[in-house]
Amino acid sequence: MSLPLRRPAPLALPVPLRLPRPSVGGLAVRRTTVIGGVVLSLVVGAATIRAAAAWTASSAPLPAPAVSSETLRAQLDVERARSAALQQQLDDLTSRGTQLGAALDAAKAHLATDAATADQLRGQLAAAQARIAAVSRQLAPYQAGGSGQQVVVQNAPASAGTAAPAQPAAPAAPAPVEPGDD
């Protein structure tokens, strides 16, 4: 079963209220009041902006006083003198560095010469020790035997290639006598 569709009834609207028309004098008062309020707001806004600007200006740092041209010239002369002194110091340091470099090169050359001389002296010392060892080997049988013979030992040639004259050997020391060898 289906129900028939019905249209709803139109709504009944209440009768609108009609306000009484304001009088011409009341309207003028209202308009004057609104205009006065707007003008007053603008005046208060402008005064606030001026007060904020004055407050900001009073809290800002004071501007630097203008520098005279004489003061600038004096400062420029001082800085030029300082620059000249620093340049002189730099030149002195550069020359000292050059001198130290030359001294270092000379020391390196001297060190190389000393190393060559030391090598040469080591060679001469080794040759001299070899000659001493040879002489000691030649003398060993005579020193142990205690004979009274004199031995002539030829030295090895000198480092320059010249032969040294033969020298007689020192007499052998007598053998020590121990008690009980009688």
Question: Could you provide a short overview of the structure?
Answer:
The protein is mainly α and 182 residues long. It has helices at residues 24-59, 69-145, and strands at residues 152-153, 167-168.
Structure report:
- 62% of the residues lie in helices and 2% in strands.
- It has helices spanning 24-59, 69-145, and strands at 152-153, 167-168.
- A two-stranded antiparallel sheet has the order 1-2.
- The longest helix has 77 residues, at 69-145.
- The chain is elongated, with a radius of gyration of 63 Å.
Cα-atom radius of gyration: 63 Å
Q: In this structure, how is the largest beta sheet organized?
A: 2 strands, antiparallel
Summarize the helix and strand pattern as letters: HHEE
Count of DSSP strands: 2
Bin the helical content: 55-70%
Query: Taking all residues together, what is the mean pLDDT?
Result: 80
Percent in strands: under 5%
C-alpha termini separation: 172 Å
Structural class, please? mainly alpha
> Can you count the helices?
2
User: What are the low-pLDDT stretches, counting only 5+ consecutive residues below 50?
Assistant: 159-166
Q: Tell me, briefly, the overall form.
A: elongated
List the helices and strands and how they pair.
Blueprint: H1 24-59, H2 69-145, E1 152-153, E2 167-168
Antiparallel strand pairs: 1-2
Q: What descriptors fit this protein?
A:
single chain, 182 residues, mainly alpha
